[in-house]
TrEMBL record:
Pfam families: Usp. SUPFAM superfamilies: Adenine nucleotide alpha hydrolases-like. It comes from the Bacteria. It comes from Streptomyces kurssanovii. This is Universal stress protein. InterPro entries: Rossmann-like_a/b/a_fold, Universal_stress_UspA, UspA.
Length: 153
């Protein structure tokens, strides 16, 4: 009789089981979520849609209801994903979950991908000119080298 070592998680050995898609409401993030849903459908993987709520203490200091605003954005994104899933029910069967984490986009996506044991991460290309100097979330995720990262234009 052969003794088997205890089961341990291995990324990407049998195809992706969990695909994380970063969603912030931008056009490129919506395209990334659509692309990720196609990957998840073809691979029989779970699509984990992740919205990172920004933490803006400066806005809160001026009395801006930051938590309410970002919560409303998250609710709107969930409604949009649900509506899209409902439109294609029966012809486009994808298992999906929506997750919200707080923080900066890079750290939030890394945290979510780690907690969900993601096999792949899909994000939209940055639409901000400032990222040419500071580095986009997508570039930082690729440099982290922890998952295959797909950047959708």
């Amino acid at each position: 009789m052969t003794e088997h070592p205890p089961h341990r998680f291995e990324r990407g050995t049998d195809g992706p089981k969990v695909i994380v898609a970063g969603l912030d409401g931008s056009d490129s993030s919506l395209r990334a979520a659509a692309y990720a849903s196609g990957l998840a459908r073809r691979q029989g993987a779970l699509l984990a849609v992740v919205y990172v709520q920004p933490v803006m203490p400066a806005g809160a200091a001026y009395g801006v209801p930051v938590a309410e605003t970002t919560g409303e954005i998250a609710e709107g994104l969930v409604a949009e994903v649900r509506a899209a899933a409902e439109r294609v029910r029966g012809i486009w069967d994808v298992r999906w979950e929506f997750h919200t984490v707080r923080g900066d986009p890079y750290t939030g996506l890394v945290t979510a991908a780690d907690e969900l044991k993601a096999d792949a991460v899909v994000v939209g290309a940055s639409e901000s000119a400032g990222h040419r100097f500071m580095g986009s979330v997508a570039v930082r995720l690729v440099k982290a080298g922890r998952w295959p990262v797909t950047v959708v234009p």
